[in-house]
Amino acid sequence: MTESKPMKNNMHEAETEDSAEDMRDRRSRQKRIGNQLRRLYDNVATEPVPDDFLKLLEEADKKKQS
Fold first, then answer.
1. Alpha-carbon distance 39 to 41, whole Å?
2. Residues sharing a CB contact under 8 Å with residue 14, sequence separation 6 or more, in sequence order
3. Residues 16-52: pLDDT tens digits?
4. DSSP readout, 22-62?
5. Is the pLDDT higher at 15 or at 20?
């Protein structure tokens, strides 16, 4: 014999429970996405700046000082 879930007293109770579960699911997805983005951008942040870009920055600084 299978167990059944207790009946909800009213529609609002069912909506509240579903909303809480939806919120947990959303938070879980957001946390996973955040962790993945951090891993991606942490790797990018530790990469060296390309020489061509450094030259452009130096040229911009010289023009700004003139």
1. 6
2. 8
3. 667 989 999 999 999 999 999 999 999 888 899 999 9
4. HHHHHHHHHHHHHHHHHHHHHHHHTSPPPHHHHHHHHHHHH
5. 20
